[in-house]
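HUMAN: Forgive my ignorance: could you write out one protein's sequence and backbone structure tokens?

ASSISTANT:
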Amino acid sequence: MDVTTANFAESLPAIKEALNGADFIAFDTEFTGQNMTSQLSFHRFDSLERRYQKMRIAADSFIVIQVGVAALAWDPDTLSYQAKTFNFSILPRPLGERDPCYVTQVSSAIFLTKNGFDFNKLYRSGISYIRKDLVNEGGKHAICTESTGNEVSILSHANQRLLGELETSLETWLQGDEKKTQVPCKPHLMKKFCHELCSLFRGRLAVSQVGANIEARRLKSKASRTNQSNQDRRDRDRDRG
């Protein structure tokens, strides 16, 4: 059975039943590639450790785009194993600010296509997923990212807390009358925090970097701007009179 977003929900009970009733389960995966360089190709004289390291590098370099699962249960009537198979087309999709990138090896793509793999179906209705280590169980900033050189990493829990504290502080500050305020920020977090705060306080604050600080300036509401505009017009009319 091919399982995609189109039939995942309705297929789930049958999948669970097959897995729970299985005597053993076998699975297979299809990756977007096998090896990044010829040096990582398997060799008959590889030691177990060397072979494992090559496979590990490949697993880290490419993504899984299909998982095949076979649930086998012994049938005493036929004295044989009965198999129920499921093929899951999976694809990490954009979520919030995360737009996943991955590597594809041309020879692997050609091999998969020649053997009937449907890339159109994968991109059209592949089941979306996200790695467990990218999920913050309770945080709305689970998919915030911070730049570290040329790499992008998930905002650490400590920095998520800093961002949350800064948000709370600015919410409290907004209850007052000051037009602007500045708060210190670590240089490597400056750009990201400014971006996040602009999004969080859209229409209420203008956020920018000033030296080693983040500066937040209060924006007037539409009603306030209208009232100010009306007052300015009245002042001009009075001056003319």
Summary: The longest strand covers residues 64-75. Residues 109 and 115 are 10 Å apart (CA to CA). The radius of gyration is 28 Å.
